[in-house]
Amino acid sequence: MSDETGPDAIVHAALAPPEAAGQRVDSFFAERIPALSRSRVKTLIEAGHASRDGSRITQASESVRPGALYRLAPPAPVSATPRPQAIPFPILYEDADLLVLDKPPGLVVHPAPGNEEGTLVNALLAHCGDTLPGIGGEKRPGIVHRLDKDTSGVMVVAKTEQALAALSAAFAARDLDRAYLALCWGLPNPASGEIEGAIGRDPRDRKRMAVVTRAGKPALTRYRTLGHHQAAVALLEVRLATGRTHQIRVHLASRGHPVVGDPLYLRRIPAGARALDEPMRRALLDFPRQALHATRLGFSHPRTGVALSFRTPPPADMLALLDRLGLGRNESCGVEPPAR
């Protein structure tokens, strides 16, 4: 359905067949341009980038007229605001549609005030270069989901509008396999279970999130204990039934089991720390970030439908701490347990 009209622009054109009579024009275009989502098509029409028999149309809900020639001319992608920066990051898989990486701790995902550069987006722009087709009219990667700056682990990034729409829908529907490893203070009781509670801004500290009784969003976290060191700390596998800001950290802290090293939700020395010897207590209390790792991610490829699955062990600092606690040689950590 495409014909090029210049070096940087592609015009999508189609003659409406009789069976398209009465169909919405945005739906008509979306069916014929797989690379564009219907919402993107609607935005382009309303912005004046579509025409019928040479006359501009701006109503996405307009009914298709059989025999008419429809054209959609998206503007050529423009450079994204963030500048490309050569920042190395581990790549687990890459093709024309998406990229899967193992995000290291300390790497901010998206530019924001105070972190305009040195982010994953800057690194992706440098890595992908001119192979990035563009999303929403910009040459930029599609951030499907985010991990906090100091949370490590598996992430998937979309390269195309079609991949972004499909992966975003899969995340919204939880139609994927996703698991985290969390080292928390104390020993949860029961050893496996659910934590449910709406999450919203902490009314006493707007920089934090909290379990709230009003104006929050429903949240559900599932966990199971993989191992523990005395009753002081436990290694959990955590799965999210919802995706709220800081959800794992907030829910565990609300049950009295904050994540080891958490700078926001660990406000006092946990009771279990007193039972540890001084070197172990200091190793846990001095851990410089939240001990949280996105260890596994599985999903269907947005274009081929092939099942993809990725699993990574925690980074060296967290794994060293788990080894010291006797919890690192656990199959769920991506490290094979010792042979018996």
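the 2nd protein, sequnce then structure:
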Amino acid sequence: MTLPPNVYDAEPIPASAKAEVERLLQSGDLFRYTAPQDAPVSLMESEFAEMMGTKYALAVSSCSAALFLSLKALNLPRDARVLIPGFTFAAVPSSVAHADCVPVLCEVGENYRIDVADFEQRLDDNISAVIISHMRGHTSDMDAIMALCDARDIPVIEDAAHSLGTTWHGRKIGTIGRVGCFSFQSYKLVNAGEGGILVTDDADLVARAVIMSGAYEHNWQKHKAPEGDNAGDLQAAFAKWQNQLPLYNLRLNNLSAAIIRPQLTEVPRRVRDGRANHDYVAGLLNTSPWLAVPDKLAAEDRAPDSIQFNLVGLDNDQILAFQAAANQRGVKVQVFGQSTDNARAFWNWQFIKDLPELPQTRAMLMKACDVRLPARLKRDELDTIAGALTGAAEDVMGQARAYGT
């Protein structure tokens, strides 16, 4: 039997990072504000903003930190209600709670995307801000969401941790709302172990976020507006907020930035290969009567590094048996709702006061499966993974009979 591939190792860090890492190790110059200019973190911010087509970028210690700072930079009042999807990672409601706000959950459908009707209903319940989690890279209907939020003057933060390289009507995810947040954690498209970044065109918002990230004294002067931009707006915002805001010390370090920078040029290739791998495996899984990969939305071009699919016609015991059979075949399957501590199952977010019940989202999570599918995998490895998954379904449900037999 062909052994399944290792889907957990990230791609090697590009060799071009080694010289800069060695220089930093020799100098010990790891703090982003030591250099008078052109520190690796500052250079990376400029390169990332240019790649995304935004005016500003702020690199921080994690995507969770970026979400937290985005909420704080919106200057929301204590206990402001922030609407989030019921299917996301626990870090999202945690960032809301950390920002002294109240998470409000909305329903998510079988295709892992926000139920727009439920979203609209909850949006009118005294909501001050919205975080749209493009969970596992699945884009919700951003046309409808932005129209609803814009009509109510409610700011939108995009949690694009899984969506670097995804587009909506050709527009880059993370640039549609007021601010977009990305992750550099090891299982994301760009890997620094840990790290995050936020992007925006709002000078006042980014100035507040920069100061609160830990730009004490006059270190904010080392954050520059892009060339050709009206730098006066950014400098005026810095001057306005200097000494007016708490410092949360969520900075990224130069060593992480040196690892990130050469990977940015790899993003298009990783997006292309990841999309091809996902679509190939999806086609194989959809040949099984018991496995169903939801279609993407028409406006969406995804950048996946994992695959999600629903189990069809299996009861709870059979779902657990499928998970065990796939694991036995060497492919680890996570069924989001079939765990007592899965951080993506909303009922495990016990830190939320008056945690609501979301029956539609719960039903989806109890049968939704997740398998890592890195862009580096080759066709034979994809065949092995798909064969293990379809084979595990047959182990539990029996061989599918041809129509009419």
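Residues 39 and 199 are 19 Å apart (CA to CA). The chain has two domains: 17-264, 267-397.
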